[in-house]
Amino acid sequence: MEYDQNNVFAKILRGDLPCDKVYEDDFALAFRDINPQAPVHVLVIPKGPYVSIDEFSADATADEQAGLMRAIGATARELGLTGGGYRVLANKGRDAHQEVMHLHFHIFAGRPLGPMLEDGALPPGTNYRRS
Fold first, then answer.
1. Can you give the pTM of this predicted structure?
2. Is 104 a catalytic residue?
3. Using the 8-state DSSP alphabet, how is residue 94 labeled?
4. What's the CA gap between 53 and 50, in Å, rounded?
5. Could you say which of 41, 97, 102, 104 is catalytic?
6. pLDDT at 42
7. How far apart (Å, rounded) are the C-alpha atoms in residues 103 and 118?
8. Buried b or exposed e, range 63-97, using 16+ CB within 10 angstroms
9. In the chain, is it the N or the C terminus that has fewer CB atoms within a 10 Å radius of its CB?
10. What is the pLDDT of residue 116?
């Protein structure tokens, strides 16, 4: 998928739209979600024009990749989340309900988040052993 320079995150990165910034460095920007799904809901985005994690992992420089991972950890520390826990989530594509076609990671925290799947079960045919 081609990157849209007019998506909402590109506009935030350019300064065309405001955000409630939590963290920023040379590689990433973290800001509070405008429609939070948990008491703490922050988005961490790379500053480069990447749509998805598969594209980012194939095309981003090693510095960009390391910088984004450091930014996620730094944001969690900045928010004081390391003691109680938090969830990091990235969606890819329409089937996963990616709403903005700019790679972004959600950090959720502030309450027990429950299982990732509604009933806590894995999809049929999944060969994953729980430990």
1. 0.88
2. yes
3. G
4. 8
5. 104
6. 98
7. 25
8. ebeebbeebbebbbeebebeeeebeeeebeeeeee
9. C
10. 72
